[in-house]
Predict the structure.
Amino acid sequence: MISVPFQFNTNFGYGAYDKTQEVINIQPVIPINLSPDWNLITRTIVPVISQPQLTPDGERTFGLGDTTASAFLSPAHSGKFIWGVGPAFLLPTATDQDLGTGKWGAGPTAVGLIMDGPWVYGALINNIWSFAGDPGRKDVNQMTLQPFVNYNFKDGWYLSSSPLVTADWNADNDDRWTLPVGGAFGRVFRIGKQPVNAQIGAYYNVIAPDDIGPQWQVRAQLQFLFPKK
């Protein structure tokens, strides 16, 4: 199915002045049938960011961040184990230098998941290196790992955990890792004839960069589902 999630993230304790950062990720996922045996699944993440001041005389900044676009080649017929591999791209779409890297980037990405009764669990990973862009900005070499687990109840209710683990390989050890722990609950239901998946959760960063944080996050998501007939 085609899905269009709107993910609302409130990050507390962000930056040197422990302010609040707001990020809305628009994340359409579109499957494309290539042949009877193979699908191409595209996933794009477009962030809309409200960034607190980063310097003593700075101001809050609002606009688009950098876009991440991924494409997964995946078998059309799978059993309990579903997988996909392909490229991921970093596009310098930020409307302000404080909201993005100023770099073009690319790297490999992969996803795997198992559907076992009420359980769904797996992980998504990518690593992106910059190859062009503003020569005055820092190079990008960043890994993103998102393990996830869902337990589904009756009537569309579920519990889930999907922390977003990141590693900036170019940063010092104290600023390299972000490691959240937490979870969420949600429900799949209909608004009229439109299937919708709504959830809310919270994550605490056990490890976070010393220079920017954040300390913890509240995440809410509203996902519109469009099953292919």
Q: What stands out?
A: The CA atoms of residues 103 and 195 lie 37 Å apart.
